[in-house]
Write a structure and sequence with these properties.
- The chain is mostly helical and 281 residues long.
- The chain has a domain of 194 residues.
- The longest helix has 32 residues.
- The radius of gyration is 26 Å and the shape is elongated.
Length: 281
């Protein structure tokens, strides 16, 4: 007489062994009963996996609590410069970014970031940039500190100017803080890389603003691209430097200065190329 193989046991919930469940957790694959099911973007997850994800998720911590003084300082300088632009229209021409001038006047790569459209008394260019800076500053500055925040903005402005030099027309004149603002957004993306939910939201916001520069005429998408690339590089530098056991601040400072110097050299080179292109016409 042949022996019948044992019948397979129905799957049961690990937390409630008396409950049969044919629904599996999308993360760990274990059976999960209705009481232990939690809705996920696709399917369901068990309560244990949800708890592990919450524990592992890292949000941006306020490592340097206090008022975002660097953010307020940048806003104050931009507003003050805008008043000067209104009072002395030629002031804008002295400091805006014009690539052929960069070999002899490299300071324009930085000063252009504090200028805004002054053709009207109420400048939407200034208002939108300062609003973006304010909201980014409230999150990023307490997380990385005043000095690093200021460094990301300033080097981001330079990075935006360099991108304009290589990707734009030799005759383009550019002004505005958007290169520095996109650099702050890029650095924040790196900081949020382990917090997937916030990372996706921030990436969508930056993507929409980046696309806006390609769609609307008169907006320098080149400065946006240069700024966000510079910000991501600085964010990676600060993240790597934070893992160094000794001399963390020195590593980050030296890395930031090397990047800034390399961008200035690249901007001067782009200026020479732009000058040669104009003379060849």
């Amino acid at each position: 007489m042949s022996q019948q193989p044992p019948l397979p046991q129905p799957p049961v919930c690990p937390r409630h062994p008396d409950r049969v469940s044919y629904v599996s957790c999308q993360r760990c694959g274990r059976p999960v009963c209705p009481e232990c099911q939690r809705q996920a973007p696709v399917g369901v997850q068990c309560v244990d996996c949800v708890a592990q994800q919450r524990q592992a998720a890292r949000t941006v911590r306020q490592v340097h609590p206090g008022r975002p003084t660097a953010t307020y300082g940048i806003i104050a300088v931009c507003v003050a410069v805008f008043v000067v632009q209104l009072a002395f229209p030629r002031f804008t021409m002295w400091f805006l970014d014009f690539t052929p001038y960069l070999p002899e006047q490299p300071y324009r790569m930085l000063t252009a970031g504090f200028l805004h459209d002054s053709s009207r008394l109420v400048s939407m260019h200034l208002i939108l940039n300062m609003a973006s800076l304010y909201f980014l500053g409230r999150v990023l500055e307490p997380a990385i500190g005043h000095a690093r925040f200021l460094g990301v903005f300033l080097i981001g402005v330079i990075g935006g100017s360099v991108a304009v030099g290589f990707l734009g027309s030799p005759q383009d004149t550019v002004l505005g803080a958007s290169g520095g603002i996109f650099a702050l957004g890029g650095a924040l993306l790196v900081l949020l890389r382990r917090d997937r939910q916030n990372l996706i939201a921030m990436a969508v916001i930056l993507g929409i603003n980046l696309a806006y520069g390609f769609i609307v005429s008169g907006v320098s998408w080149q400065a946006h691209v240069g700024g966000i690339v510079t910000g991501v590089l600085l964010g990676l530098l600060y993240s790597a430097g934070a893992r160094v056991q000794r001399h963390t601040g020195a590593v980050q400072l030296v890395g930031s200065l090397v990047l800034a110097a390399a961008l200035v050299v690249a901007g001067i080179y782009a200026g020479n190329l732009a000058t040669a292109a104009l003379l060849a016409r």
